[in-house]
Amino acid sequence: MRAGRLVLPALCLAFALLFGALGVWQVERLRWKLDLIERVETRLAQSAVDVPATIDPKQFEYRRVRVSGTFLHDRETLVEALTEHGPGHWVMTPLRTERGLILINRGFVPQGRTAVGTDRQAQVEGLVRLSEPKGRFLRANRPAENRWYSRDVAAIAEARDLGSIAPFFIDAGPGQNTGGLPIGGLTIVRFRNAHLIYALTWFGLAGLSAFGMRLAFHTARGQRRAAGGR
């Protein structure tokens, strides 16, 4: 009987430890997210630099860079997008540089409009972005049908027979296209940061579980006394 009375307090203790551990984990995630935001804000504030010969995209993400080369407009890819201008497409154009091909997101074209690529020689300034493999949630890229929902550099390179290409793309800044289209400079830098709320939730549940453990323990002790110490 004594062991049976301790089951509920033991369960409450286990939940308190579990929720407490999850709260600590969310605090660590909060520190990581704040550090990430600080690093990105620092990169965004820096002046543009030439694209290095060797680059780690993760360490250079959202860094402002510039590069010169020749646009291959016949190898462009349109990627479905929704922006402040409504539905439309990102115009992804390969740029041949001295160091090889780099995929450039020249900007956004509203649905029903066309971006005519007239300038082949170009100097692009923009932000380094990581590839977006596999497509969006519930919407996978379909290269065979030329339907693109994410900016997957490797898949686009394969579909357009581009061969070796940089493992990142560049979001071109505003005002770099003749006639105003595509519309550049639409990169949204926003990081969801709800880790503090999650941490407080887990710690709150840990506190409730600890209170439940104490209550269950005192209840079990009261039952034992009422039963004559059995």
From TrEMBL:
Belongs to the SURF1 family. The keyword Membrane applies. It is a multi-pass membrane protein. CDD domains: SURF1. Keywords: Cell membrane, Membrane, Transmembrane, Transmembrane helix. This is SURF1-like protein. The chain crosses the membrane at residues 196-217.
